């Protein structure tokens, strides 16, 4: 992968950093749960970036390789967190996490100051899918899969031309208000029989000859 990461431009500081002989890369993960955001990074201690604090997990976390293709294939990833206290496993069991946002950023820290280099680049963004939990009674290992956002292209989007669907999408729009009423309705237009009631004026007795 080039330093432009498939078209996503890196900041000048990041380009300089990845071009040096010594690189101190970091990975930042953000997971959106219904009650809170969980933010982790691959180092130790707390790290602040973008107004948020990331909790360091050291060597307890791993991420599968992140793949990119030119044919718009939806390639997912898996993330594993080991050494989780049993008391915290309830969060994974009770939270309605499926479909929550998941993003992974690649950045770097300065080898001298330990400060984060500006503008880490997003290398993955998708939605949380399934968590698998392995618990030995003292600590647990959680493996979560995440699907790429491109998987949304495979999701069927059914839209029906009904009054209810129209008002749900566009509140107050009455463009399809009479759609149900005109189904299977017989309409007479230009009927030469003057005794035939016409429906264009709501069934009145006005016939074509009355306009002559």
What labels would you give this structure?
212 residues, mainly beta, 2 domains, 9-stranded mixed β-sheet, 9 strands, 10% helix, elongated, disordered N terminus
Strand order of the largest sheet: 3-4-2-1-7-8-9-6-5
Query: How many β-strands, per DSSP?
Result: 9
Strand coverage percent: 25-35%
User: In total, how many domains does the architecture comprise?
Assistant: 2
- What's the SSE pattern? HEEEEEEHEEEH
Rounded to an integer in angstroms, the radius of gyration calculated over CA atoms is: 30 Å
- Distance from first to last alpha carbon: 80 Å
Q: What's the story with the biggest beta sheet? A: 9 strands, mixed
Describe the global form. elongated
Describe this entry's structure for a reader.
With 212 residues, this protein is mostly beta strands. It folds into 2 domains: 12-154, no CATH class; 158-212, no CATH class. It has helices at residues 12-19, 89-94, 163-169, and strands at residues 25-32, 37-41, 46-49, 52-56, 61-63, 77-85, 101-108, 121-135, 139-148. A 9-stranded mixed beta sheet has the order 3-4-2-1-7-8-9-6-5, covered by helices on one side. The protein is elongated and about 95 Å long.
């Amino acid at each position: 992968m080039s330093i432009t990461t498939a078209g996503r431009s890196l900041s000048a500081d990041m380009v300089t950093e990845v071009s040096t002989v010594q690189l101190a890369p970091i990975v930042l993960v953000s997971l959106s749960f219904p009650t809170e955001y969980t933010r982790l990074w691959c180092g130790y201690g707390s790290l602040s970036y973008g107004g948020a604090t990331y909790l360091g997990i050291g060597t307890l976390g791993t991420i599968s390789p992140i793949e990119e293709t030119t044919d718009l294939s939806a390639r997912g990833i898996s993330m594993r967190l080991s050494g989780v206290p049993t008391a915290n496993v309830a969060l994974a069991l009770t939270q309605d996490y499926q479909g929550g946002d998941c993003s992974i950023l690649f950045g770097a820290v300065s080898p001298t100051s330990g400060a984060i280099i500006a503008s880490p680049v997003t290398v993955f963004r998708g939605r949380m899918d399934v968590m698998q939990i392995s618990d030995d009674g003292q600590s647990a290992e959680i493996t979560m899969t995440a699907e790429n956002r491109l998987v949304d292209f495979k999701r069927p989007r059914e839209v029906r031309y009904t009054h209810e669907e129209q008002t749900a999408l566009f509140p107050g729009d009455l463009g399809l208000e009479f759609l149900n009423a005109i189904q299977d309705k017989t309409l007479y237009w230009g009927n030469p029989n003057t005794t035939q009631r016409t429906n264009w004026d709501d069934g009145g007795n006005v016939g074509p000859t009355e306009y002559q």
